[in-house]
Fold this sequence. Notes:
Blueprint: H1 2-21, E1 24-25, E2 37-38, E3 49-50, E4 54-58, E5 73-77, E6 83-100, E7 111-117, E8 123-126, E9 130-131, E10 137-153, E11 159-167, H2 178-197
Antiparallel strand pairs: 1-11, 2-4, 3-6, 4-5, 5-11, 6-10, 6-11, 7-8, 7-9, 7-10
Helix pairs in contact: 1-2
Amino acid sequence: MKKTLFALIASATVLLAGAAQAGVSNFDELATGGDFTSLNDISPYAGLSWSGDWFAGDNTIDGYANAAHSGANFAVNGFGSDAVTVSSATGFNFGGAWFATPDGVGDKASWINISAYDSLNQLIGSTGNVAIGDSYSWVGAAFSNVSWLSITRDSGWYVMDDFTTSASGSADVPEPATPLILAVGAVALMAARRRSAR
């Protein structure tokens, strides 16, 4: 009985870890050390591949005190590319992300546009140009079965946080471990009753 209970708990832990990966990426677990870190160098991050012009930073970097929507870290577009991409070998659903401009830099983007493509490079949809500023704005997308995203802007810098995805075919907030957690609880309750009956 103990072995079964431990096996169920271990399985629930693995499923919960998987569910966390397919949710909100806030970049906070990345070590930035007060500087910018290439997301491309650590790809895949959160199960996704990030193009060479994506960087992670933290709000101690000069000019980026407002750059994290949650926690202390964020992603920022690179040094000169008009478009940056996020891709995956398997399809994913993209719900949206929070965008702003860093308040301490001179050249700021005034809008971003997110376009989603499938595995045949066909356009799934686009947000159109969405205005952004020093305060964070949610840019919702609800694109399904995405192979890659392209994020463009007019010019200058923007920051992004709480990048929200789920595995293709699942809901925006995945809960695959719920039935297993209930089963673990039931087995634990039965085990406790057997012990008290002895």
